[in-house]
Amino acid sequence: MNRIDDFPLDLDPSRPGEVTLGGAPEGHDARIVVALARRTEGGVVHVALDDARATRLVQTVRFFDPDLEVQQFPAWDCLPYDRVSPHPDIVGQRVDTLIQLLTDRPGRVVVTTVNGLLQRVPPRAAFADTAFTAQIGSRVDVDALQAFLVRNGYAKAQTVRETGEYAVRGGIVDLFPPTSDLPLRLDLFGDELEAVRAFDPITQRTSEPRSSIRLTPMAELQLDPDSIARFRSGYRELFGAVAGDDPLYESISAGRRHPGMEHWLPLFHDTMETLLDYTPGAVVTLDPQMAEAATARFSQIADFHDARQTMRRAEKRGGSEIYKPLPADRLYLDQAALDELLDRQAVARFSPFGAAGGGPDAGGRRGRDFVDARSNPDINVFDSVLGHI
Question: d(Cα 145, Cα 131) in Å, to the nearest integer?
């Protein structure tokens, strides 16, 4: 292949179906993703095996086409049915990506992981008009800004150092949105935004000025009266009347965030969707061994759910149910749901090996890595390289 888009594969998003593309080892697969994004109005959603692989693919795609829009959608960094929440940086990136996907921009690439694809996400309507923007010279109501920050998962702090924190000191507002690489200091004169500057989270010294701010939610749920009411109703419907000590239910009812509450995310929304609902018209490409990775994830989700159910029964006998796990299919896709989802898409499964049975082949082959020589103490790896050359 001499040109980046010269390979025998024609995927039409309007014609669902699956094909295995041979000759697509790591590195070369990014070249194929770029070519597909150039050909397809709806762009490409690539499903990588894990976060490390997804990050490498993003970097390689940007190498082949620096002008191509690439969004990364990570999975939560906590276990299913955990007692802790996902890291704010992860959640902020997820929400920002979903908001970006609501805008219709052709030919972009979205890179996620198997775990990211298998987890349901809030509906598109949940993120409509949720960004807070302001330009230098515009009017900013500090009370309204604080209400936005609290409602969307930002945490009040004495000194802003981490993503998702904010502090208000008179006419100075410090905050660290997920859309910025540094925290921002807003200087207000009355209700007029006079200046925005980035600052060092360690020294707190300001640096380069910014012309505007764009804030997106730090959470995949809002603690407003409607979402709290949905949570309370759904929680009682699933687990019965709340009697005795239930820290999660009490915290949410009072409008307070609770550690790990994201694991009951579907109760805060009328419905849940998938990442592919945000990317209509996209071609889906899959890493090799994606099916095996999905099977392992299904098993992990089931194991953790069963463990929580066993613990719940033990707690109930002791007179106190502390953790009431959500049914797995409310937050995660199972095998049948995944198959149904992919059956509606134009899908290419990448294979590092040559195409079998005359199927499409992208022409890439893995170079020899000499792992056999490096693992054998009786072989000089440099002699093996010389002999290969």
Answer: 11
Q: Where are the beta strands (DSSP E) in the chain?
A: 17-21, 44-48, 70-73, 109-113, 132-135, 155-156, 165-169, 172-175, 184-189, 192-199, 206-210, 212-215, 283-286, 346-350
Residue pLDDT, tens place only, 226-285: 999 999 999 999 999 887 788 999 999 999 999 999 999 999 999 999 999 999 999 999
Contacts of 150 (CB under 8 A, 6+ apart): 156, 223
Give the pair of three-digit tokens for residue 29: 């697969």
pLDDT in tens, 288-322: 999 999 999 999 999 999 999 998 888 777 666 68
Q: Which residues of 235-269 are buried (b: 16+ CB within 10 A; e: fewer)?
A: beeeeeebeeebebbeebeeeeebeebbbbbbbbb
How many residues appear in the chain? 389
| Separation CA 43–CA 235 (nearest Å) | 38
